[in-house]
Amino acid sequence: DFITPEPIRFVQEATIWYRCANWSEKDRILIFTTEEAQKCNWQDGGHCDRKTKKPHEGLQTRLQRLGLKVPFRSIPIVPGYTTEQIWQQFNTVFEVLEEGDHVVFDITHAFRSIPMLALVVIHYARVFKSIAVGGIYYGAFEALGPQYQVEETIPENERRAPIVDLTPLAELLDWTVATDRFLKGGDTALMGELAQRSVAHLLKASKGADKDAQAVKNLGNALKRMSLALSTCRGLEISEVAKNLKEQVAACAQSDLLPPFAKLFDRIQQRLHGFSGDPIVDGLAAVRWCCDHGLIQQGYTLLEELLFSAVLLETGHDIQNREHRKIVSQAFYILEKNCVENPDRWKDTSNNHLDMTRRFIDVIRSKGDLYKKCSQIREFRNDLNHAGHNPSAKTLKSAGRFAYDLQKLISDVERILVPLS
């Protein structure tokens, strides 16, 4: 909040006095004016004092009196009464923004559609030109009451209207995008980044002692780790990452530091409900997450590796042993090719570990048609991993079935494995 030394007629003058006093010749102030605003507010004499009839100074003169180093100018803009004019306004504002600009907006004295347009332009420019928003301000003169009443009852030197900081609306747009990414794509990384950014100033001010802010920071980190674990198929760590995210969500559920995030807590908890701490159940939950959010290639990769882990866990072997995983993979392949009784057709790794290979084959056989499911998963995984460069690959026309087939395979594998996990 700030108070000008004396009442100022133009909110833009007050905002510039407050925010731009230290700006240099390298910065710039741009005032968008319609033809009417140019005559009535930018130039001198557009309005007169009702009592003395003395012409008022325009905003151009008022800014000159501030003696700022930063250059300023007015830019013509259409009123915005039609859809075509609104697009013209959009282009006018967007074109003057430069890559990496740090922007302060004042949207006072504008047609009613301007605040909405400003938010759209800001959001668009943040994506396409990487601008940063330093502030969005609105001078709420109407908070003093109707103009005729203000002029009759409030002395001129006491008419101080509040300037409302609308910057959080730009942040809310970020949360909207982050929410969309999460609900449609399962991507929690942007939510994590926004959560951490929202409490950075509190942590800095408290030197890390603010427990609520620290909890939000931890939540942000957990969200980013969850997204990274799934997108990069970190199968060994998914259970622990999901458990940690559950804990961090619970720790922040009652926090008032993240108003935009509040409605997402239930959604996140619903998505995490399938993670129970059991490695097989959690593995299937991770695959289902991938399937539900378009991470199809990751889903097939995680699902095939989960089958190998399930056999190794049941036989008491280390699931991180690369050679053992290779032997399990070959055991599935031996069953698929129906060459259990023909070791001469086995690969060297299997032949060098006959007892282990036969033990794995017995376990896989005990699970019905699991080896057939593995064969399907392997085929689809190879198709995806090799970018369709094989004669039997799905065409683009039928590629949509990858997700459908994955969903069915998840259900089939769950039916076989979960009762035994």
UniProtKB/TrEMBL annotation:
Domain of life (superkingdom):
Bacteria
Q: What InterPro entries does UniProt report for this protein, alphabetically?
A: CRISPR-assoc_prot_DxTHG_CS (IPR013383), CRISPR-assoc_prot_TM1812 (IPR011742)
Record-given protein name: TIGR02221 family CRISPR-associated protein
What organism is recorded for this protein?
Answer: Desulfatirhabdium butyrativorans
